[in-house]
Amino acid sequence: MIETIEASRHGTLKRIIEDHWEVFAATHHTRDVVRENVEKVLRCGDPEHMGYSRYQCECGHTHTVAHTCKSRFCNSCGKVMTDTWMEKTQERLVNVPHHHVVFSPPSELWLLFRCEP
Length: 117
Description:
- This protein is mainly alpha-helical.
- About 45% of the residues lie in helices and about 10% in strands.
- It contains five helices and two strands.
């Protein structure tokens, strides 16, 4: 059966976690770091749990922005981190045509390459 996901809910991964995490966690052993990251994702963008920043202009108008989890596991936060990393990496590369070559010696020679001179 195909279920239609409401447009108002953010991210399908977050929804899947919301709908199934409790049962999964109760029936499977998970490491602490996994549980911590799942909790971050579930609370991402929730001002009550993650906090918020409030901005006010001189005219009196205010705008509230909820803090995010900044977890690599989170769809939205992980995407932002990846895009930022790609931009920084591209800035460091020389802007010339190049080829990427991977040198894979046979396993019999691996010890020669692991030795430090």
